[in-house]
Predict the 3D structure of the following.
Amino acid sequence: MKQSFKDLTVYKKAFDMAMKIFHCSKNFPKEEIYSLTDQVRRSSRSVCTSIAEAYRKRKYESYFISKSSDADMENSETQVWLQFALECNYINKDVYEELMALSEEIGKLLNHMIENPKSYLRNADKL
């Protein structure tokens, strides 16, 4: 049994993606600091925080699904911001494709959590 949300593969991948986005967004233009830079960092970090919240409330199936769905929504938002970063030439195609592949993988893992909540619930046998 997993001891912490930090042990979840989906959390590890989401955290890795958020850190990669943080580092590559350091090179975004200063005029983007309150727009694209802030937004892509915020949404990628929100994937992690929503996973953590879902894990901590995994005793309650509906809450777990809701927070996992929030993580999926933030992951999709991150993809949109990455597309803007590519089209504005703030990241190159290789970086974009690497981050999008990671985001797609995270999305599949989150989808599994949403569609199979009982696999993740605490005390599922007592529910």
